[in-house]
# Entry
Amino acid sequence: MLRLLIIVIFLAVLIVFALSNTDLEPIWLISFGWHLSIGTLALGVGVAGLLFGTVTGWIGELRQRSRARRAESHIRTLETQMVDLHQRLDRLQNTPAALTANIPEKRI
# Structure
């Protein structure tokens, strides 16, 4: 929610700046030139940066989600193994009592 608020404020400031600077200026990039207002240029650069940051964050989030899924799968496997080991331990602890109960006592 805080991210959305920051993005809205950022875009609002850029839009106000773009509306305030509407005079056309010559813009050159290497040998390409065109006439563009400084406000429009700032708005375009800001939106491009916002999109680049969003895509970069999204890729990082996908990696984290993948790692989380693998970790959760590993935890489920370990929990299953732990339950199996507890059941085996219970069976082994109960087995000697059952064996000694069935053995007849020797009387001298």
